[in-house]
Amino acid sequence: MISKIRAFSAVLYVLLVIPWSILFMYLFPKYHRKVRRVTASAFFKLFGVSAKIIGELDKTAQVLVMNHQSFMDVVYFEAFHPNDLCWIAKKELGEPFLYGHALKAPKMILINRESKRESVFLLKEAKDRLSKGRVLCIFPEGTRSLGKEKFLPFKSGAKFLIEHFHLKVQPIIFCGTRDCLDIGSMKFDNHPFSIKYLPAFTPNEENWYESLREQMQQEYLKIYQERKNVCMVE
């Protein structure tokens, strides 16, 4: 019951606060990053969300490659990353009125995976954001996973983009964010989750993308098992 009440409160926060955030971003586009940071930080403080951080964020990384479990993944980086982020998401997410404008107002990149011309659009939009000093954020799985042991297959779009611009990549692993917040199931248990920053690098090997997925999968399993063992003890 407490979990559902907390989840309802989170949805209420979104419905009451996000429209104002969107309005401010449209009215004051130069300050959209500040508006997003304040909105996300307030969410963390209001609900007392906590995370275990492993490793260090590399502020010079041009693209963040992450697994995706929950809406909490996005909220965390919007609250705490020091740079201006640009999330790359599927175009369908821009269709719902509220969520759509939350992505469009700060000029996130929305792509249509079914279009053969999408690679040209992606490169054009990414070049524009990078020229403005923004950090690209990609979920290579292409959607949210169930937060279990296995990653979904990585889509090729991230590889194509990173290689084209020779970007510096920082892999980041989320574990437990779905256990913390699952809006789809209206569950907000607010369990502390884990975030692991892997060393940033600029790809120079042929099979780097496959190796990256394997590395992220292995590191994720370590954290997943540690969390599972702690829960069993408790």
Number of structurally distinct domains? 1
Indicate the structural class: alpha/beta
Q: Please count the helical segments.
A: 8
What's the count of strands? Answer: 7
Ends apart, CA distance between termini:
21 Å
Q: What does the radius of gyration come to? A: 17 Å
Largest sheet, strands/sense/barrel: 7 strands, mixed
Task: Please identify the top-level CATH class.
Answer: Alpha Beta
Q: And the CATH topology?
A: Glycerol-3-phosphate (1)-acyltransferase
Adjacency order of strands in the biggest sheet: 1-7-6-2-5-3-4
Strand content: 5-15%
Mean pLDDT: 91
CATH architecture: 3-Layer(aba) Sandwich
**Helix percentage:** 40-55%
Q: Ranges with pLDDT <50 over ≥5 residues?
A: none
How are helices and strands ordered from N to C?
A: HHEEHEHEHEHEHEH
The coarse overall form would be: globular
Domain Phospholipid/glycerol acyltransferase: 62-177
Keywords: Acyltransferase, Lipid biosynthesis, Lipid metabolism, Membrane, Phospholipid biosynthesis, Phospholipid metabolism, Transferase, Transmembrane, Transmembrane helix
Pathway: Lipid metabolism
Transmembrane segments: 6-28
Can you tell me about this structure?
- This protein has 234 residues and is α/β, with parallel strands linked by helices.
- Helix content is 48%, strand content 14%.
- The two termini are 21 Å apart.
- It has a single domain, classed as Glycerol-3-phosphate (1)-acyltransferase (3-Layer(aba) Sandwich), CATH 3.40.1130.
